[in-house]
Amino acid sequence: MRGRAPYGFRLVSAIAFACAIVPAPSLAQDAGAFSRQGFGPRGVAMGNAMAAVVGASPYYNPALAPFAKAQRLEMSAASLSFDRSAQTVQFTTPHLHAGFAVGILHAGVSDIDGRDNAGFHTATHSVDEFAGFLAFGLRVGSSASVGLALQAFRSDLYDGLDAASTIGVDLGMTLAVTDDLRMGLVFDDLLARYRWDTSSLYTEGGRASQDEFPRRIRLGAAMQQIEGRLLISAEYEASFSSIEVLSRRVEIVGGSPVEFEDVERITVRDGLLRIGVEARPADVLLVRAGLDRIGSGSVRPAAGIALDQTIGNLGARFTYTFAREPYGTGSAHYAGLELTLNRR
Known about the structure:
There is one protein chain. This protein has 344 residues and is mostly beta strands. The protein is 6% helix and 62% strand. Strands 1-2-3-4-5-6-7-10-11-12-13-14-15-16 form a 14-stranded antiparallel β-barrel. A two-stranded antiparallel ribbon has the order 8-9. A hairpin with a 7-residue loop joins strand 5 and strand 6. The chain is globular and about 80 Å long. The chain starts with 6 loop residues before the first helix and ends with a strand. 36% of the residues are buried. Residues 1-5 and 15-28 have low confidence and may be disordered.
């Protein structure tokens, strides 16, 4: 007679199964999409299934900040297809039963070929977007933690268009179900929205508009096995996007046809799953793999490694991740360096 699977394994499997019974997402383009591609090589390698992973960046869940074991500085850079790039910087420090983290994510597109109506080259353009965060977390009792993060977003798309900026709020919590299993719950990008005004570009054709960030709820689980040498994580995300739908109609006014434009806001619900694995086959080596965007119509697989090196009292970790971009748009390479400044 076969034994029953461990409780933690069954719970992580249940989250994975949840994706199979939800409808496929609408694939709508939402504001701030760059900030949801991942933060650093570790997160991307594990499919961004990081809501409950102790030691993960508080960018994924501010309630993870209290679990930092030492002051740590992390830096990473990514090279993607179509002249895209991304960089991250983060500093984390613990304090008694609390933790604090500050960081920034930059994403950009360079060498955009500008042309006039006749097809002649006019200028080379670039796009820059930023997401900065300030996270604070606190342990509650022996098994739970809560956290709050303030995020500042900025999108600079075109020289002739004013950059859009906004503030968002993240709320998170974690709970240790057993010694080896932890759950995480996160509410992302609350209050965040971009406001645009294209009147300066199109005069009479310009208009003011508002792009809402999707309100996201993420439920995750992370399980340690083999005396901590194997980590399995899973995460389900439900997002709710408010989208403007434009429609035109023609009415007869004073005997002449007049065109009217109607603007309606609708809410679109999406759901997707993420899974990740991290194994330590040797004391100085970590191997990672993950799948992101399961249920979105195009899965994003990734894999990576990390090497640890001690330099006196300074701990250094070198990380690398390779990821395939969704919809066959190429590949991405992430490289990072983590420095432990004050080991405990």
